[in-house]
Amino acid sequence: MHSNKNQIKTNNSKIKLYEADYLLFLLVSTLIIISIIFSYSLSIYTVEYLEYNQFHFFIRQLLVGVLSIFIMWGLSLVPPDKIINKVGMGLFIFFFILMAIMPVLPSSLVTASGGANRWIRLPGFSLSPVEFFKIGFIYFLSWSFHRRLIEAPKKIKLKEEFKLLAPYFLSFFVVVFIIAFMQKDLGQVVLLGVILFILLIFANRSYKVFVTLGVGGLVAFIGLILAAPHRIHRIYSWWAMVQDKILSILPAWADNYLRIDELPEPYQVSHSLNAIYNGGIVGQGISSGNIKLGFLSEVHTDFVLAGITEEIGLVGLSFITLIMFLIVLRIFKISGRVKNKIYHLFTIGIALMIIIAFLINSYGISGMIPIKGIAVPFLSYGGSSMLAMSLAIGLVLSISKSVDLNKKVK
């Protein structure tokens, strides 16, 4: 990565530029390479079943992975003040409009899933607008919070504080309607809601707001579940697997009220847990796993961590988890040292997006929470997720040029 310690003029002031965070670039590139390897190893049954060429998913992931690495490298060369606002706002506006009009687009342009239009069909691949919108939404919050909230007084009445936050609630409700109802993707709403909640903490808001939002968010979350039969079925499937363990630690009378008979079998999660169990400490070996042979669908996408664990074991999973957390810690380090408040909030948001998505997927495949269908950052097969995440990391690398990461903080 190009070393560059020159200066640029912005608003009649000089900003010193440093070398972009080379370690962050290497860590993300490592996960992308791992994803390319397992896109071949874990898709063996799928290519046979769909009668594809055996390298079908591998070639696609290889092309997307290489492109993603070049996107990160290219953005790392650009000073942040020349690109962050343009790309951030561009992603927010363009993909918000695109998601809003998807229900009325002709079927030749969209790909439906579960009765909802989630992908734009392009030559050779499909694009998921929500993956790119998330980055734009985080930038919009960062930009707007800096303008309206950070400098606003903290000790004001709750009513006045909610008036101050009203535009954000309204915009988030619109996002909830588009993503949760029109695209039937509750997982992405949960992820964005948690990011919004945590960024408010860094925007200097009072604890009363967080208590009110927490209660309101829980009620809204339950309402969104009850509004969709497939979500209720997913909750039932999860409860079928965990109810015995939970009820065993509760008082005896709770069994009469909480136990549900004739629940659906948690098919996917059961096989996911079998894959993890089969992996043991060191795994079955790359390409030697059995769960991918028709027992667990989407093993190279939503259940990629289960498939990887079966083949490279707890040791391999621990290595991947370590890399993921190092990426997040590296972004937090950049965030903690950058002086620009917008960049500070934006990098926090990107780090949260990565770690929350990773935890939601990890907890889901292990049965700790219901499956949400959230891709594992940099690892799950899919061009939209990979390209969007590389774009986000590229912007963080650009921001890192304004920070001296080698300087010791006293």
What secondary-structure arrangement, pairings included, does this model have?
Blueprint: E1 7-10, E2 13-16, H1 22-41, H2 44-49, H3 56-76, H4 84-101, E3 110-113, E4 116-122, E5 125-127, H5 129-148, H6 158-182, H7 186-202, H8 207-226, H9 229-248, H10 252-258, H11 267-279, H12 304-337, H13 341-365, H14 383-400
Antiparallel strand pairs: 1-2, 3-4, 4-5
Helix pairs in contact: 1-3, 1-12, 1-14, 3-14, 4-5, 5-7, 5-13, 5-14, 6-7, 7-8, 7-13, 11-12, 12-13, 13-14
What does the main sheet amount to? 3 strands, antiparallel
Given the structure, what is the number of helices? Answer: 14
Strand order of the largest sheet: 3-4-5
Class from helix and strand fractions? mainly alpha
Q: How many strands?
A: 5
What is the radius of gyration? 22 Å
Mean pLDDT: 81
| Backbone shape | globular
Unreliable segments (pLDDT under 50, ≥5 consecutive)? 2-13
Order of helices and strands: EEHHHHEEEHHHHHHHHHH
Which oligomerization state do the chains in this entry correspond to? Answer: single chain
Beginning-to-end CA distance, first to last residue: 28 Å
Percent of residues in beta strands? 5-15%
